[in-house]
Amino acid sequence: MKELSIEWRHYSKDGSTCVRCSSTGTTLSELVNKLTDDLKSKGVTVKFTETLLPEEDMSQSNLILLNGVPLEDVLEDTKSSENSCQSCSCLTGKDTSCRTVEHEGVIYEEIPADLIRRAAYRSVGIME
């Protein structure tokens, strides 16, 4: 049986994370359950890991790795960037930027389920 390992890295301070990471986390939580059910019939098990990051690793916050590969490296016409994050700035007490994902010219602060799902399928060799 194949395995799909999904790791989500995000900044956490005293158990709190920023709004965009929180949104991505909610999306991932729902999607991992669906992927587990959908991919089981295709011979793939899904393993999910959440990695909490300290402030010095902020550049990795809201990073999704699929079998160790960043989502933006799995999908065509996708890249990562960053922009100012008011929510993280409140948590850190200073102007802070968070990762974004740009897909086909659209910048996402919260990573949508459709991008994650497509990258997950592609990571295990299933093209949609």
List the helices and strands and how they pair.
Blueprint: E1 2-11, H1 19-40, E2 44-53, E3 63-66, E4 69-70, H2 71-74, E5 78-84, H3 86-92, E6 97-103, E7 106-108, H4 113-123
Parallel strand pairs: 1-2
Antiparallel strand pairs: 1-3, 3-4, 5-6, 6-7
Task: Describe the structure in brief.
This protein is of the alpha+beta class. It has helices at residues 19-40, 71-74, 86-92, 113-123, and strands at residues 2-11, 44-53, 63-66, 69-70, 78-84, 97-103, 106-108.
The fraction of residues assigned to DSSP E strands is 25-35%
What is the average of the pLDDT values?
93
* Radius of gyration from the alpha-carbon trace, in angstroms: 15 Å
Output the structural class. alpha+beta
How many domains? The number is 1
Order of helices and strands: EHEEEHEHEEH
| Helical content band | 25-40%
| Total beta strand runs | 7
Any guess at the CATH architecture?
Answer: 3-Layer(aba) Sandwich
Low-confidence stretches: none
Features:
alpha+beta; three-stranded antiparallel beta sheet; 128 residues; Glutaredoxin; four-stranded mixed beta sheet
Overview of the structural elements:
α1 packs across α4. The two termini are 20 Å apart. The chain has one domain: Glutaredoxin. The model has no long low-confidence stretch (mean pLDDT 93). It is an alpha+beta fold. The protein has a 4-stranded mixed beta sheet with strand order 2-1-3-4. It has a 3-stranded antiparallel beta sheet with strand order 5-6-7. It contains 4 helices and 7 strands, in the order βαβββαβαββα. 34% of the residues are buried. A hairpin with a 2-residue loop joins β6 and β7.
